[in-house]
Amino acid sequence: MTDRDLIKKLTNLKEIKPDPSWLKANRDSLYSQISNSGATNLSTWSSFVINLKSALKTASAPAVALASLMLIVIASSAYAHLLLSNTKPNQSLYIAREISEQAKLNTILNPVAREKMASQFAVNNAQDIATVLADPNFNNTQEIEKLNVKFNEEINVAKNSVARLEKPAVQNVAVSGTATSDEVYSATLSKDNSGISLSGEATSTTVDTAISTTTKILEEAQNLFTEKKFQEAVDKIDLIK
Amino acid sequence: MKNSLIFCKKVKIHMTLPLVNKFKDKQTLSRLKNKDKEVFIKVYDDFAGDIYRFVYFKVGHVEEAKDLTSMIFLKTWNHIQNNSLTSSSTLRALLYKIARTSIVDYYRETGGKLEVSLDDDDNHLEIIDENHDLEGDMDKNADLLRIKNKLPLLKEEYREIIVLKFVNDLDIDEISEVTGKTKGNVRVLLHRSLAALKDLIKEDQK
Known about the structure:
The structure holds 2 protein chains of 2 kinds.
Chain A: H1 3-11, H2 20-36, H3 44-58, H4 61-85, H5 94-107, H6 111-134, H7 141-175, H8 181-188, H9 203-226, H10 230-240
Chain B: H1 2-33, H2 37-59, H3 62-82, H4 91-110, H5 134-150, H6 156-167, H7 172-179, H8 183-205
Helix pairs in contact in B: 2-3, 2-4, 2-6, 3-4, 4-7, 6-8, 7-8
């Protein structure tokens, strides 16, 4: 007899089983005994907590650590994003917002998308500067001087980006009358599709009009800012957004 | 392509099944700790047969095996309520550990000796064979009866390890935990116990 045969025969000893009626009677007896010792049925909440704890115990320690780390990173980056997006140019955290914007721009490889984002950031920053200066309580002369310079820089960045953005779009439209709408209305800085039509012979003209409108609005905002009409400059920039 | 898909499925099952089992085990232990009687009864349904068989091969008498099995489940319930559950990796290992100590305690208390005969008339072996080869069945029955009769002649240590591994399907890790021996030691013992049983059967055949 080989080991395998022997093991096979040993496995057949599983057929030795207790008497089913005894099993049932003993089951009932045990049930009543443990019921007397305070056993109950668990609530849904307790079951949930137990399941959660069991899952944590089942996962290996490095896996739990990695998951916790990822959760912390995601939560903190979401919180930081929220915090930075509400930072104003006169606050110390504003530098972090600028760095974050620069980092975001550097991660985008598509030049059209990058220009679009750069122009959006510049417009937002210009509007924020104008909003801060529109506040009558803000009277830090040194800071005001800095923000004036900064506003003009941002407006120039926005204008340059728009100009760079429009060139390839116009060329594309000129080459084929079926250019994708993405490229075009990213250039026109319009939130909705209204006023932008890419079909037919009128396409090129529409885009040109959009460029001049955007640039015009930016220039008007700049003029209003120079005239210290900050609130009006803010409203004007709102038209682009 | 089909083969590789089947292979991937098998690998996935092989990798996820131990985790699922581990989760279920932890869940059951925690529920028992929280005095969930339904779970306790499910544990009883799942393990009563195995524990009874283990005890039966230890003591060799049906009535004693029944009493001890009942006691072991009650002891397990009390043990879980009164102790931290860090000492055992699985619920099954814990049950067998308690079963072992209960048997020893039982004989210590009653002043009896652990003499195994497995000569109860209540446990007739029935071999289930799909082919219904009567002659083959008789041969198998004879073989099984021979094994059953030879088991008590083995050293207690050998018999225990054979029952745990080949009759009750515990893995090496669990046997190691239940018996308190190293895994290497368990493997050596398994090899020796099989050889010893084979020798006993050979002697009988002569």
